[in-house]
Known about the structure:
This protein is α+β, with helices and mostly antiparallel strands. It has two domains: 4-144, no CATH class; 183-341, Histidine kinase-like ATPase, C-terminal domain (Heat Shock Protein 90). Helix content is 64%, strand content 13%. The protein has ten helices and seven strands. Strands 2-4-5-7-6 form a five-stranded mixed β-sheet. A two-stranded antiparallel ribbon has the order 1-3. α2 packs across α3 (40-55). The chain starts with a helix and ends in a 5-residue tail after the last strand.
Amino acid sequence: MEDRWLQRARRGFFLAWIPASAGLWVALSLAGGRGFLQSAPWVLGLCLLYAWLCYSARYLCRVLPLRRERLSRWLLTHILAALLVSALWTAVAWLLDEGWNTPARDWLGVGLVWFGSGVLLYLVSVGFHYLLLSLEETRLAEQAAHRSALLQRDAEVRALRAQLNPHFLFNSLTALASLLEEDPARARDMCILLAEFLRSALQHGGRAAVSLEEEMALAHQYLAIEKIRFGERLAVEEDIPAECRAARLPPLLLQPLVENAIKHGVSQLLEGGFVKLAARREQGGLSLSVENRFDPEAAPSRPAGMGLRLTEQRLRAFAGDEAWLRVTARGDRFTSSLWLPDTEGA
């Protein structure tokens, strides 16, 4: 289906013939043709015919695209075409009017005006069609670049997701192995929860985007597993306003941040600690944070691991370069914060 802008360009081309016809009408009247009012239907009808003849120049322009090395060729071709089409138009006008019913002394002036106007109008139409073809090529190139960017982004998301799923499984099985030695009974309960969690994670991760509500549900499943491991040592806090829960984000985005908080925070503290999940609507997007306590003496610095690196890459692949992920450590608080634009879901 033809683009709307091409349809508008075609309409604009034919509408431009209205002032051109009016100008030719005045010029012929001054050159000694028919009377001013008598010549109006005749001039306007022939101009409508010539508009279609000039519109056919678009096909010749497609065959002869602008090339510097072919400048003489296409210039000569279009000049010859303008002369032939204008001569044909002049002959048709003469035949329809039987010599314009003008005195012989005025015939030459009217014919020259008609023929010269035809050549000029045809060449202007050629220029218009080359401009239109240039805009069309630019538009097609932009569309192709956009499709290519979407395909590249989709490939990046798939590749990152392929890396992320084994990372989840490794961390979950490591947690289960540590619990098997400590409490086999709780390990069985954990196996059941882990199976449900992995099933949900696989379904969850196969989608292009999920709501924050769905992402939080998966985080709750994971935290229930870790609650078996740590018991009262793990406290969970949540501050997710209702207006944030419909926001759209890539699946399994919070999971690495929650894992990171437990692995480097709660598990390193004998008295235990907390994991706080918070969300806010700000600056036209969604702000998320995962905060936890940690031991600054045991871990004065903590470089970003695979989970954080994958989260940042997936965030940018999903929402573009405007999105960001930052980690900060202040006192005994470690916070992973991210922001992504335009995340409100339908």
